[in-house]
Amino acid sequence: MQMEEDLDQQTLTITTRHKCAACFQQFKKKEHLVAHMKKSHHSVHQPKCGVCQKHCKSFESLREHISGPLAKAHCSSIFSQCGCQLCMKVFESPISLGEHTDQCLLTAPACLGTINIPHIDYEALQDENYIDKDLKAVAIDCQMVGCGSDGSLDLLARVCLVDEEENIIFHTYVEPQISVTDYRYELTGLTEELLIDAMPVREVQEKISQILYNGESIGKARLDGGKAKLLVGHNLEHDLDCLLMSYPEKLLRDTATYRPLMKTNLVSHSLKYLTKTYLGYDIRLGTHDIFQDCVSVMRLYRRMRSQEHQDDKTATSCIKQNLIFDKGKSKDLENMSPDELFQISTPNYQCWCLDSRPRNPP
């Protein structure tokens, strides 16, 4: 009789465990589940397993779930047959996967090399047909040379901007502000001759600002973006520092700090790794080609932006809803089901899929 009572008690304990609707982690007490939801910031914007629907903090976590040392056997088996190794989507059949892979696997853009011209301005920037396309983002990449006694200080020497259609909208070599001690030729391909009569930094700043702000006032751009462009790059803080420029943080899209693309310990991956892992081709096999890097970072951004998440919330409503979640009374939250807790939980980053929506909806 005592044994039966113990079994009944164990069964009751098992049935009363509280399971997270996003990551499936289980808790003995509801208050622990609520604390977990507040800390984890689960949302529909997190990478999700196409087999079991588990939400992961990053794509690296998702890869570990599917193919890591402790991968789930069922998910791993199905993904190995019908899953795309690049975008991590799961398809109905290997045939559907093959058709998808032809479009998902990209080829490396041609290298620009070290062209010996003063600079490139994209004439179509003033064309009405081009303006009507409403291309929202611009990607940037900079090349540095070394200064200082040991050549370890970065000095801007070259900059390139491309639009979403991978057109070069601006490219120039930059006049060194102080003496260059290391041109880093093996990495950059730059020489002293290429920087002779190069564009002064102030003029570079003016041209880039004109492209980015797109006729919008700085105040309006900082407030809600307005007509200003999104600036895409890898380690943008470093590039902007070398340009001696600033840009509204809400308009920056950095592949080095975008949480779904980071390591599980929130350390950045290299652009070379991200390009190979998510686009399927190699870059930086020799010198670092500025155009190739620029196009690759734009492709990464567009791939992340194109993700479809079933969420009707805008970025503003996400912030408001997160405040409600954080300030909600513990008892009220504990009375909610795991699915209801998941519905009011919001990410601690802005998902790039929101960029595909109108910036200022009516």
Task: Please characterize this protein's 3D structure.
There is one protein chain. About 40% of the residues lie in helices and about 10% in strands. With about 350 residues, the chain is α+β, with helices and mostly antiparallel strands. The protein is globular and about 75 Å long. The mean pLDDT is about 85.
SSE topology sketch:
Elements: H1 2-15, E1 18-19, E2 26-27, H2 30-40, H3 59-67, H4 73-82, H5 94-104, E3 119-121, H6 128-131, E4 137-147, E5 153-163, E6 168-173, E7 180-182, H7 185-188, H8 201-213, H9 218-224, E8 230-233, H10 236-243, E9 252-254, H11 271-278, H12 290-305, H13 315-327, H14 330-334, H15 338-344
Parallel strand pairs: 4-8, 8-9
Antiparallel strand pairs: 1-2, 3-6, 4-5, 4-7, 5-6
Strand content: 5-15%
Radius of gyration, taken over Cα atoms and rounded to an integer in Å: 24 Å
Spatial shape: globular
H/E element sequence: HEEHHHHEHEEEEHHHEHEHHHHH
Q: What would you call the quaternary organization?
A: single chain
Measured as a percent range, the helix fraction is 25-40%
How many helices? The count is 15
Uncertain regions: pLDDT < 50 for 5+ in a row? none
Write down the overall mean pLDDT: 87
Largest sheet, in brief, is: 7 strands, mixed
Q: What class would the helix/strand composition place it in?
A: alpha+beta
Domain C2H2-type: 18-47
GO molecular function: 3'-5' exonuclease activity; nucleic acid binding; zinc ion binding
Main location: nucleus
GO biological process, one term: rRNA processing
